[in-house]
Structure formats: C-alpha cells, structure tokens
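User: Please run a holo structure prediction.
Assistant: Happy to. Please share the sequence and the ligand.
User: Here you go; the ligand is flavin-adenine dinucleotide.
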Amino acid sequence: MPAIKFKGVDFIQYDSLLTEEERLVRDTTRQFIEDNLIPIIEECNRAGRFPRELVKPMADLGFFGASLKGYGCAGMGNVEYGLMTQELERGDSGVRSFVSVQSGLVMYPIYEFGSEEQKQTWLPAMQKGEKLGCFGLTEPGFGSNPGGMKTRARKVGNEYILNGEKMWITSGSIADVAVIWAKVENENDKIRGFLVEKDRPGFTSDDVHGKWSLRASVTSGLSMQDVHIPEANLLPKTDGLKSPLMCLNQARYGIAWGAIGAAMSCYDCALQYAILRKQWRDQPIASHQLVQDKLTWMISEITKAQLLVLQVGRLKDAGKVEHQHISMAKRNNVWMALECARLSRDILGANGVADDYPIMRHMMNLESVKTYEGTHDVHSLIIGQSVTGIDAF
Ligand SMILES: Cc1cc2nc3c(=O)[nH]c(=O)nc-3n(C[C@H](O)[C@H](O)[C@H](O)COP(=O)(O)OP(=O)(O)OC[C@H]3O[C@@H](n4cnc5c(N)ncnc54)[C@H](O)[C@@H]3O)c2cc1C
C-alpha cells in the first residue's frame, strides 16, 4: 500500500487552541521523526535495537530536558513539551520512553533535588546527549508499591554504601549515571535519591531479553553489591517517597501526550488502508458501516484525549496541576491508544499483524506503557482516592 504522508489528526480545529510556538515544536518534531525514525524503526524493532545514532540529533533539537530552564535546556512550555512527546511516540514508544527517562526521570530530579555542583556536572552534558541516565525505582519484589523497596544505603564516614537490586530499568545498561532510590539506614529508612555512576565497583547491569514490547528501548536489571559513592552523590533535597513520585508525575505527563501519538499513527494507518482496501463488489472497506463505526470511535476518542491533556498542560503551565489530573490523562489516553491499536489492527485484517505496518508494534509497546509509571489500575485508585477521600490501595 503506498504510504500517504502523515498530516496529523485534527477533527475540531484543535490547532486553533495552540500557539504558533507550540505548533512549531510539534511540526519540527514530526519532521524529525518522519525523516529519521520512521525509515529505521521496524528494523530496530525486529532486531531489538535502540537507535543510538539518533541521540545526538535529538539533543541538537533540544529534546532532552526540554522543559527545564538554564543549563543549555530548551525551556519549553508544558504544552510544547507534550506535543514533542506526542510526535516522538507517533514514531515509537521506546524512543519516547528514552527521552522521557533522560528528561523527566533523570535530568528533572537532578534539577529539582540536586546541588548546584551536581547540576553543573550533569545537566549540560545530558542535554547534549553526551551523558545518558536511567531511573532505578522498581525492584523485583516492589513495582506498584515502591515504598516497600529493599535497596538500602548506609552512611559510613563521608561515603554511602549501597546494596540492592532494581528491575525493569529503561536505558539501564547504556546509562552513564543511574538515579537510584534507596532507604537510608541511618535516617530511619527514609527514601532518598543517589547518583550512581556506572563504573562504580559493585554496580552491574543486565539487559532483559525476549521482550515483546518496547523492543527499540533498552530495559535492564541493576545490581548493587557494596557500591561506595561519595556523600556528594546524594541528591540533597530528596525527602521520602514523595520525591520519586514527583519525578513520576513529570514522566506520566509526557506519557499522556505520547499515547495520543501512538493512537494517531494507528488511526491514520487504518483510515488510509480502509479507503484503499477493497472487498465485496469492488468497494473500499471504508464504505461498510461497521468499519466506519471503528474509525468514528477512534477519531472521537483521540479528540477527547487531545482536549484532556491540553487542559492538564495548561494547568501545569499555570502551576495549578494536581497529581490526580495527570493520573486521569495517563490512564485514559493510554487505554484509548491501546483500544485504537486493537481496532486498527482489526481493520487491516491479516496485514495488521505484519510489521509492514506500524500497528502491531504500537500495540505491543502500549502494553508496557499501560503498566509502567503507575499501572492503569493504580491510576484508577489514585483518582478514586481523590474523589472519595478513601485510600483503596
Ligand atoms: C518496558 C518497561 C520499562 C520500565 N522502565 C522502568 C524504569 O525506567 N524505572 C523503573 O523504576 N521502573 C520501570 N518499569 C517498571 C514499572 O514501573 C513497573 O512494572 C510498574 O510499576 C508495575 O509494577 P510490577 O510490574 O511489579 O507490577 P505489580 O505491582 O506486581 O502489579 C501487577 C498487577 O497487579 C495490580 N495491582 C497492584 N497493586 C494493586 C492494588 N493495590 N489494587 C489493585 N490492583 C493492583 C496492577 O495494577 C497490575 O495489574 C518499567 C517497566 C516496563 C515493562
């Protein structure tokens, strides 16, 4: 099927709600993805290869730490940042995950909780893509409930000694530095964040193989056996579980936008296919009511998701966003995107399962996106707690 260039999905003149700068960020990112990622992504996905060659060009466009101010960062508004992640994820959730981790889960905590020296050491280099980071919160035994973590830090003299295991860590083995969350024994097991460089003795990483999701992203386990780090590697303003949760809020916000990109890719592909594919009396399958119903569902849900996340972004810019707003956007938009992937796959029939088309890759990716950064059900509980005042975890 000849591919028609992606023109975006805008049913209700949504673009009129965006500023010129916001549209420019979106269009620049879209062009970058079209020129650089779309031509190689299926090969990367098949091979389970992270397209590392795109790190420098992405840095040059200001994608890393894009919403931070200073230290060479682009200082984008939250809607600009969101539109960027949307376009990245239209390309691939794995590549968007890489950018989200580098930005929201590594640069953000250094920016928010770090000393000036830590900021100067890491942020400009990470912005340029010269240094990569990962975020170690999840453990083999503690995912949705990270507060139960077993990783411990013990202060001895002017050092901390870290012991523990982290699991499912995006960019784990390619990162130069890991933000590791650990309970500090000398502080009544308070959770604090540490910067652990990958060459510290006792620190090792092992990649997860056999993933059917986010294949273009590196996912690793991290192990720390008596890893000594100087006390200057403690992120000094981290203060309990709320600190990593603040990081997750940043990343979840980007995911809520990103999922729309994946949904748009699937919808666009299914729409083009339905118009060209003929069955029965030489008519396009798009002429059948049931196919139109699926396309209608998708365009309606994508449009609602766009409005939801735009309002959340505007609230974030105004400093008024609450974590439950971000939970609603993440939960709804990822669910919506996964449903779009399933309906689109269905419209493509047998072709839908082949990687000549992006749909099955998006569908498999979105299964991880549904689980990480708070599962769909955990976000139900966060919203439920917000509306009832009752903790149901
Ligand atoms: C590809 C990938 C990349 C990842 N990258 C990172 C990363 O970079 N850094 C990092 O720290 N982590 C990362 N994660 C881990 C991710 O955040 C966890 O997988 C997620 O938090 C869920 O934890 P879990 O897998 O242990 O599932 P569990 O917590 O065991 O949950 C399993 C099921 O039980 C449900 N459940 C759990 N508690 C409740 C409850 N109270 N009520 C109702 N249902 C409940 C869940 O909703 C889910 O359906 C990644 C995961 C994946 C798949």
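The longest helix spans residues 242-276.
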